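Input record (one chain):
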Amino acid sequence: MSRGLLLLVGYMLSCGALLGQEQAGLRLGNYAGVNGLMLNPATAHSFTYNWDINVVGGGLFFENTFGYLERASLLGLAANRNGTVSPTEQLDPENYDPDADFHYDFFDDNQKKSFYANTFMTGPSGFYRKGEHSFGLLTNVRATTSGQRLPPSLGYYRFKDQVTEEAFRIAPFHVGGLAWAELGVHYGYKMDDGRTNRPAFGVNLKVIKPLEAAYLSNNEQISLTKAATLDTLFFQGVDAEFGLTNNVTYDPSTNSVDYERNRVRGLGLAVDLGVEHVTKQPNGRELKLGASMVDFGRVGIKNGQYHELKTNTDFDIPLEDFETVTTEEEALALLSAQVLENTEASLVSNQFSLWLPAGLSLQADVEVFDNFYVNAMTVRRLSFLKKGVQRSNVIAVTPRYSLSWIEASLPIVLYNDKDLRIGGALRIGPLVMGTDHLFSVFVPNQFTGSDFYVALRVYPFWKGDGKNGGGRGKVKCYSF
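The corresponding structure, as predicted from the sequence alone:
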């Protein structure tokens, strides 16, 4: 993975950046506006107001099952960003510092491993609804790194404790990272003949500009043996490929980033598609059902590096050879020489392409009683799109109390089908802030990740509370 993306992941781990996975408190509800269109573009026709403008917004989500910080929280990390970090006594007794501010360790289990990081910044964006039609403009800068359902043998203790001089196997796996800017246009349509309710449809078409990218695909099972001296790894063939850009480098000695190389060239397209149907229950309250596909698209890189490491021949990698390597180019040339006996043999092309973190989503939203709603949502990654970045799976149930001026929600989230957490979000007028992992923000514990999001918007919340913006002059709302 390129140094720019390694820097991004390292920053998430060490600094606890202040800005989530699906940002339930930001994407759901009658007042979600343009941010809701990024989960289901058809929802433009069920929002309370006819227009919405996002001034600026941002967020960060990070979660992993490899390792953790002891007794840490997001606020604690933010308040002590320059604090000392030490391995635990179990991990490294020689370098253990009992007075360090934070201690880190790795999970000692035989579970599949994963990591996922998603950062975004939404710039000026908005939508406007007129009758049966809705139109919008979306601007985002995003970065995602992912590795889903990785072999347990990649865990620190599983690899460290593996018996030497005895072959063990590593199953196929895929990891990737991508940073990109996107400019999108939105269109939605709902036909209403005055007698029957019909579904609304929506589409976001996005042009993608890559900023940084890297991926690694191990296509076949690897047989690996550690030497008794632990200084050499022996392989029985390999079938792997990887691609990366090298426009950003990080100098750890000065803690600085260098952007002087050529910018990444390339382009991509992505689409969000959605449908939503709103019906009246026997008690007169609304039930909304929606389905969408988001971030389905691919981006091509024109000035990167695409490498293939394919051989049926046994080979070894002396780890000490890499101790004197100082540049990315030297490391790649050395790896190619060790595997393919030629420093340039692995480099196949300067072009490669990656899939975006595509997913399928289902949503249901019901008004239980006046101003109190419950939303159920699931997002499932399209796991067959392996060469790229893969979304995490999410199931969420979100109760919320909602008025035009204020809204409070309590997302209950099942992350990757096994990790249950509680979030919280608050909207006060034009300001929205929240998290889908509340305890990780405030409660020091075994810290594996966290998230936070915030947005500043403009919409006609001054029209008053009540149905369809009622109160001091009702806002015209699309009638279902």
